[in-house]
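Review form for a predicted model. The reviewer records the input and the model, then writes brief findings.
Reviewer: anonymous (R2)
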Amino acid sequence: MMNKEETLLQKRLIELSRTAYLRGIVMFSDFLNLNELNILHTTPKHQFQSQYMTYGGYGLSERQMVAFLPDALYAFSDLEDTLEYPFQVLEISPLNKRFSEELSHRDYLGAVMNLGIERCKLGDIMVEGNRGILFVKEELSDYIRENLTRIRHTSVMVSLSPDFPEDYEPKYEEIKGTVASIRLDTVLSLAFPLSRSKLTAYIEGAKVFVNGKLITSNGYRLKEGDMISVRKMGRILYGGILSETKKGRYLTVVRKYI
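Model under review:
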């Protein structure tokens, strides 16, 4: 059962789809988080009057916009490569590297939201060394560039980063280990050193998504290349089985994004 907010979001998405169909133009949503993307993907297709695509700025993006497409446009085979989504990529860097602090994802997010910007207007935020990369709806780009001058005690400057690579991959740590089976809970235990009961609580508590879809079953069987997101804990990519041990266990590898 969806709560009131989730029902409102679903209605808003259906309305965007209807507008795209009736007016023959592309309609874009705000950035959707994992839970909201799951609502999109699990809404019966017949409720949408137009087809849709999602994108967040690079192939592995977690927060994504939805583009609802009129029929006339959807027929174009190269649409995925040519469609311009209404967001920009900003690079936030210290004015003086010598005096800059180590800033976290939370620091960057907090500083931008302190400008009065809602989370739904922001896409992914990546931290790379002493700089932050931020996806933002284009109408707020200039405002952030003019007003974001400090994060904690560090003076910063914000510039446009127009050539952000589509194949960007966040930094990751590769973890190998043996598991009894390729179930969601056993693979998660490789990346997150938590007890089985805690991992079960995360999965059954609707905090785990595989390829953007909410999964609440511990025994869900993973396939090589599956992207697993655990809310507030991070993401891992399941890299598949490397070999089988004599005792019938599987040596597997995951990428844990840092």
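Findings: The longest strand covers residues 234-244.
Further findings: Residues 4-23 form the longest helix (20 residues).
Recommendation: see findings above.
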